[in-house]
Amino acid sequence: MKELIEKIKGEMDAFCKDADAQLLKGNKAAGTRARKSALELSKMMKEFRKLSVEASKN
What we know:
- The chain has 58 residues and is mostly helical.
- The chain has helices at 2-25, 28-57.
- The radius of gyration is 14 Å and the shape is elongated.
């Protein structure tokens, strides 16, 4: 689970960087990357939830 958390942190950093670039500079490509990161974060969060529930049962 530690590896997954590190991947989530990295993806979140990328999302924040790209979202800021879109918001502050009007960079459309950064907006596309931010949306892609949001989808990846959603998938990783679902995986985290699954692993977390399993860990709490043990």
